[in-house]
Each structure stands twice: as structure tokens, then as C-alpha cells.
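Human: Respectfully, please carefully check these C-alpha cells:
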Amino acid sequence: MGLWVCYELRRGAHGLGVDVDGCNAIIELLEHGPAYADGLAQPKDIIEVVDGIALAGRRLVDALAPGQSAYAVTAWRPDGAAMERQARATLGGGTREQPLWLELVTIRRGPTGLGLEIGDFSQVVGLVPQSTAEQDGVIRPGDVISAVDGRRAPLATHGSTLHEEADLSRSSHAGS
């Protein structure tokens, strides 16, 4: 079991912060690199597409445009069983034709908390009116919370509301 995911890899002072094998599978996230800090890439992800262009046997390093600050990648995540269940139950994606887009967003706490109403499988079902989440517009109903402060979000949090400031990894359909 697995699923297709899209995410951004940022270039830091010493590169992307990933070590890949000859098949472009991520072997390791370097502890102080941007990929580790962002928490979107995972060991065993097999990178297949960079900025919309299939690698088709090319090495990842050869596909990266010099000097570019970030790259949009599509990867096969073979160990994504929990995320796959979450995706199928909420977004219906995770296929090669419709990969999930993973994105790191920061939500600020306001007087009413974060202002996110969370349903089953950690899907955002609503935004509290006039909350910071509604005002900032970085997350919207239908998004799925996959991690909070770098830790995987529980899959079933029916009826809960997130109230603390957090860095959230959200999943949505690629390009939405």
C-alpha cells in the first residue's frame, strides 16, 4: 500500500537536506536541513517528478535547476498506509493521476484559539467565524491535517477544535 504525494523541497545553505539513492528514493533526511525542518518529505519517498518534469531514469541532482530556491516534487510514498486511509476517506486522492499536495502552513492562535473545527480523519470541516484561521486564509474546509508541530495528527478527532498555535502539514488535492 502507498500513495502519491506532492510537496515542495526548499533549498537551504547546504542543499535540500535529503540523501537519495540511485533510484531517487530518499534514504535520509539530514537533521538540520530544510526537508527535515519542513517535515513533508519522508524516508523511502521515491521522487518521480520535479517541477512537472518526469525524472524518467535521470538522477534527482541532474533535474534540479541551479540557483532555484524551491522545487515542486511528486513522489511515491510506499509506507503511507495511515495517510492513505486518511486520504481515501476524505479527499479520495493519492493516486498518480490525483496525488495529494502536502503543504506546511502556520496557524496563529487568536482570542478564540486557532479556530479550526476538525471532523473524522482530521479533516477541517469548518472555520470558526472571525478566527485567525478564517482571517489568515491559509487553511480551508476540506483540508486534512496530517501533522501538528511535526507530529502526525490523530486520524479520528471527531468534533474537536484545535486551539493552540501550531505548524500544520495539510493535505489537499494537487493544485487546489
Summary: The longest strand covers residues 3-10. The chain is about 15% helix and 40% strand. Helices lie at 34-38, 60-63, 81-90, 132-136. Residues 4 and 76 are 5 Å apart (CA to CA).
